[in-house]
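Just scan my protein:

. . .
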Amino acid sequence: MTFFALIQMNRRTAISKTRPARWRIVGLGVALAFCAAHIAADPNSSDPKRYLDDVKALASPAMEGRGAGTKGIERAADLIEQRYRSLGLQPAGAKSYFQPFTVITGAKLKEGNHLEVQDGKSKHGIKLNEEFVPFSFSASGEVTGPVAFAGYGATAPEFGYDDYAHLDVKGKIVVILRYEPAGFAGKSGNAGLTQHSQLITKAINARNHGARAVIVVNGKLGDGEEDQLTKFGSVNGPENSGIAIVQAKNEAVNAWFAAAGEGKSLSETQNQINSSSTPASFAFQDKLQISLAVNIEKTRATVNNVLAYLPGETDEYIIIGAHYDHLGYGNVDSLAPSQIGQIHPGADDNASGTAGVLELARLLAPRKGQLQRGILFADFAGEELGLLGSAEWVKEPTLPLDKAVAMINMDMIGRIKDEKVFIGGTGTGATFKNLLDEEKGKFPFHIEYSASGYAASDHTSFVGKKIPVLFFFSGLHSDYHKPSDTWDKINAPDAAKLLDFIEDVALKIDSANERVAFFTVKEDQPRGQPGSGGGGGGYGPYFGSIPDFGQEENGVKFSDVRPGSPAAKAGFKAGDVLVQFGDKPIHNLYDFTDALRRSKVGDVVDVQVLRGGKPVNASVKLEQRK
């Protein structure tokens, strides 16, 4: 399940590329054993042992956490494909069982990154990776200009504080401290840091004030703390923040203070800010000039949705799906940052759901041509990078989209505790609630329903296309997005019972005389569920848009707009691309989140979107998030 609060906005494009044969050879022996062990399984009900064997295989060390760009995710796709072949299911990808597309997996530093300082007397460079390093979300390019010190780089009207209040940084390179003024936490009522401490917030704020580049410095260090540079690629951010941003060591920046002849030092200035809770920003004398060059290349990988089809008597079909990718060796979405570099096996997230799709495929495959409607078994890649696989499929469907009757999604179904199960999307289908109530009496589960079709998983992509969805989920746990999400913690007996429940529900939907009518859930506002959307990931006042995480446009594309929301009242629609929010340009979801955070309930904001490439303007009155 993707962690939306840390979501990365990755561009991707569909490509035509077959799977390299070498990965098939590497995984062939495992694949044959994987398939043979299941062909003779009981065709009438889910088998806990076989289900758990699938989870073990998908979460094994050979799968390398099924991270995009690893050999492991290639092996996992091959295993899934081989299972579908063994069951006699039809290929339903672009030209085979696979639907390939490209994702951005990270970034790397190319040649040509440098930082040079001209202090009026001499010109010298500081060393890459020893004295400075770019952040992976920095814009690439060359910048030369005068320098200004902008304190913590914060504009926080809620605290009566603005480092840019009396400082013109247009065309300048700004030096800013990491973290935030000491008084912010107390004023916010929280023990932790506020959003103003976040590096991407600092970058957006500097860019919006006209700065050309940002140099971040650690500043005051704690007892025993070393002045270390952040490892390149270890901080989350957008693909491109729209401004060059690097980190430099204290020693280098202290030299700039001394060379500028301002009679100031970095530590003294920081202490002054913290003690007075008042900005101490200033422009260095013009004799201090910095030349900065950043050259970053995004790393990409080809991944595949794995798709198989069970034909029915008609051309209508339902989709039973799950994502099979995970975090690989860990990345910025890991909730065990000290263990990044270790395999994150993702047994529950989401080998459990993928194994569920495979088990249902085994149960239903013998019914080829017997069901009223067909079934598309869909295993999505790119979910952890932002629902990219499902976004790819609804953008380039391999079956007619208008024939899709419903989508059933399983994400993290392997850790059922106290027989409690969560089912989302119950309000998106006219008959879903009654159908579920009829079936649940046959099973021991305590079910919690949610009408909304929006959450941090792939079914969200289908709601935007007006396809009814059901989302099955066993709940979050302390091993989520950590190396400790291992197969031995899976509750296979209860997962198998849940799969029997899901099969019954799927067959009822499949055999209904009339296809399920899609209902738009008229929610007042999202209720704080992770990834529930609402515009900007649940931050700031309520706007009411649902972002399309598979977009390629420069801006924030709406996959949907919540009925009755401020955005809907202003006339905005699914497919609109947000490019301006008040006086702030919007390049990505991080910009939108920042703009919402800086707004207040009741503000009337002039918003511009692109609709069919043409600008549409409207005023939006922001509401209270409940």
